[in-house]
Design brief:
Length: 333
C-alpha cells in the first residue's frame, strides 16, 4: 500500500490494467491472431510521475518506465506495436531529448510491440571515429535485454522485425548503464516469468521496474514453455525485496513499477511474495502427502486469495496456476 491519494489513482490504473489483461488474454489464447485485430483506438496513454527522473506510462499491455534527463530518454518496455505513436507522444510530453535506450524486461508481445518503431525514432550515443567509420552508427536507440530475449525474438514465426531485436544483449547476471547522472542496474532473473526476465533498478531515483515477475493484477503467469518457473518468480520477488528500502512505517521509499497493475512500494511486493510462499507451502504439503492434482484442486489451496487474484477465464486461470505449481513441486520431489 502507498499513501491515500495513490490508492484512488491505483484503482483507476487497475481498471486499465484489467482491460490490458483482457487484451493480452485475447492475444495469448490464439497465438496466430495479430494485435492489429484488437482495437487500440480508445486506449489512452496515462503518465504517472513516480519519483526522481522516473515516470510510468499506463495504456494497454505492460507498463512502460520512462527515465528522462539531460542525456536523453531511456524506456523500459514498449507495450503493443499499435500504440507506438501514442507512446512517443507521451514521452514527448516529458522530454524533447532523443530516445537513447530501450530496455526489455522479457520477450512477450505486450512488452516489446513498439520496439522497432520507437528505437528507429531514437538514436544511440556514438562518438569519435565510430561516427565517421560506420555510416549508421548512431541511427537507432540501443535495445538492451537478456540474451534469451534476443534468442526468442529471432526465432519467431512469423518473424519479428529485425529492427525490434535487442542490439545489446547481455548474458551475465547483471548489466550496468550510467545514464542521466544515474546508475541503472539490470539484473537477470533466471527461469522466472520466462527464461529472459530482467528487472531494472534506478539507483538515484530509487525505483525498480520489474516486468512480469511482479504484477498486481493476478497470480504470476509462469510461461513454462519459455523457460519460466514458479520458484524463479519467488526468487525474483525476494530479489526485489532485497533491493527495496521502505520509508517511514513501510510506506513509500523505493517505488516499484510492476509489469501490469498499479504503482507499488516494497510492502506490496512483500504481501505478494508472502501470498505465493503460503500457496507454495500448502501445495508442497499436499505433494508430500501424495495428493493427486485433482485432490489438490478440490482442496482449493488458493481460496482465500482468489477474490483478489483468481480468474476462471482468460489465458491464465487459477486452475492453470495451481497445476503449474503442483507439477513443478511434484517434479522436484
Ligand atoms: Zn509477460
Amino acid at each position: 500500500m502507498i499513501a491515500k491519494g495513490w490508492i484512488v489513482y491505483g484503482q483507476r490504473l487497475r481498471l486499465v490494467a484489467v482491460l490490458a489483461a483482457a487484451v493480452l488474454a485475447g492475444l495469448t489464447a490464439v497465438p496466430t491472431r495479430s494485435a492489429a485485430q484488437q482495437d487500440f483506438d480508445d486506449i489512452e496513454i496515462k503518465i504517472l510521475p513516480v519519483q526522481g527522473g522516473i515516470y510510468m506510462l499506463v495504456g494497454a499491455g505492460g507498463n512502460i518506465t520512462v527515465q528522462i534527463g539531460d542525456d536523453g530518454v531511456l524506456i523500459v518496455d514498449t507495450m503493443f506495436a499499435e500504440l507506438s505513436d501514442k507512446i512517443v507522444a507521451a514521452i514527448r510530453e516529458l522530454s524533447d531529448e532523443p530516445i537513447r535506450f530501450v530496455v526489455n524486461t522479457h520477450a512477450h508481445p505486450d512488452h516489446i510491440g513498439s520496439n522497432a518503431s520507437i528505437a528507429l525514432k531514437g538514436s544511440n550515443i556514438a562518438g569519435g571515429n565510430v561516427v565517421g567509420a560506420i555510416a549508421d552508427a548512431g541511427a537507432q536507440a540501443k535495445i538492451v535485454a537478456h540474451e534469451n530475449v534476443l534468442i526468442h525474438m529471432s526465432m519467431q514465426d512469423p518473424p519479428i522485425a529485425f529492427e525490434a531485436w535487442p542490439t545489446d544483449a547481455y548474458y551475465t547476471a547483471k548489466k550496468e548503464i550510467f545514464f542521466n547522472g544515474e546508475a541503472i542496474q539490470i539484473f537477470h532473473q533466471p527461469e522466472a516469468h520466462t527464461n529472459g526476465d530482467s528487472i531494472a533498478f534506478f539507483r538515484r531515483s530509487d525505483v525498480i521496474s520489474t516486468g512480469d515477475v511482479f504484477v498486481t493484477t493476478g497470480y504470476p503467469y509462469i510461461d513454462v514453455q519459455n523457460g519460466g518457473s514458479f520458484q524463479g518468480v519467488l526468487d525474483a520477488l525476494n530479489n526485489i525485496i532485497d533491493l527495496a528500502v521502505p520509508a517511514d512505517r513501510q510506506e513509500g521509499g523505493t517505488m516499484v513499477i510492476p509489469g501490469h497493475g498499479r504503482l507499488c512500494d516494497e510492502a506490496d511486493v512483500v504481501e505478494y511474495r508472502d501470498m505465493l510462499t503460503i500457496i507454495r507451502d500448502r501445495i508442497q504439503h499436499m505433494v508430500d502427502e501424495g495428493f493427486s492434482l485433482r485432490q489438490v484442486h478440490s482442496a482449493r489451496p488458493t481460496l482465500d486469495y482468489d477474490g483478489r487474484f483468481g480468474s476462471d477465464s482468460g489465458f491464465w486461470t487459477t486452475e492453470q496456476f495451481i497445476e503449474t505449481v503442483y507439477e513443478e513441486l511434484n517434479a522436484s520431489e
